[in-house]
Amino acid sequence: MILTITMNPSVDISYSLDKLVINDVNRVSNTRKTAGGKGLNVTRGINFSNIPVLATGIIGGTTGKFIQEQLDEDNIAYNFYVTQKESRNCIAILHQGNQTEILEAGPRLDNDDVEQFLQHYKKLLNHVKIITISGSLPLGFPVNFYVNLIELASEYQIPVLLDSSGQMLLTTLKSQYKPYLIKPNQEELKQIIQMDIDVNDSHSLIKALKHDSLDDIPLIVISLGKNGAFARCFNHYYQVSIPKINVVNPVGSGDITLAGLAVSLHENESIEVMLKRAMTMGMLNAMEAQTGFVNMNNYHEYYQQVEIKEII
């Protein structure tokens, strides 16, 4: 089973507009609401792949109840730590080929919530093979909290796939307990290594991935958007190319990509199959209007178009 962790889940609201007019009324006829947060998108991607998955994290209030109802409708198993604080909303405005996001910070929690969630988390680890951790932390949680989760997972020898950024990611990389996989984009990688990267030059990407701060991370996948990805698996490097697709809604595509990586690790697939699976899943999500949705009927067609080249 795969355990997905979303510490700061949300209700994701997507508004589609022909044009966004600032300082005026914008009327929306097409609105979508889904149980969101990066980790819940990962959960859906795993669920679409027919792999056992359990979602956990922290929810509360009427927004938290909506999240649970949505997961029930999707037949997704969950076991959340529930607080009395209201979970957040996140709004994505899709307009003229652009995406403008308005993200609530979420509830402010305290040290008691930190300890209560750690106890909750420990009880879930006995039957878990892979863990994914995605997104931000609730206000009030220490910046090194993900280190605590990885440390506890290491006691059970469970690999952790971490998709986070900023100080949360930097703090984790400086700690004794490292994730098995990280998936930064170009800007996040620059922040980690503090050097410029030419994403069109494989030698520049390899140099970046050889940075000392990344030494103990077995698997790193750099997201390059429409240009695919670049990956390091131990001491091997891979360029991943994807076909041109009709992008409808890119929200959640990185999360669904992480779901593909988690599924492949769960199924002990080769690195080539893993990268093809992950990129295919991400593309399929971007081709749909609904956030975190994948039409698996199109999987084989696009899987065949993903190209993997090992860089020697």
Automatic annotation (TrEMBL):
What keywords are annotated for this sequence in UniProt?
ATP-binding, Kinase, Nucleotide-binding, Transferase
Taken from the record, one Pfam family name reads PfkB
InterPro entries, A to Z: Carboh/pur_kinase_PfkB_CS (IPR002173), PfkB_dom (IPR011611), Ribokinase-like (IPR029056), Tagatose/fructose_Pkinase (IPR017583)
PROSITE patterns named among the record's database cross-references: PFKB_KINASES_2
MF terms in GO: ATP binding; phosphofructokinase activity
Task: State if Transferase is listed as a keyword.
Answer: yes
Carbohydrate kinase PfkB domain location is 8-292
Carries keyword Nucleotide-binding?
yes
Q: Which GO terms describe its cellular component?
A: cytosol
Source organism superkingdom: Bacteria
Q: Some GO term, biological process aspect, for this entry: which one?
A: carbohydrate catabolic process
Report the family membership.
Belongs to the carbohydrate kinase PfkB family.
Q: Which PANTHER family match?
A: 1-PHOSPHOFRUCTOKINASE, 1-PHOSPHOFRUCTOKINASE-RELATED
Name used for this protein in its record: Phosphofructokinase
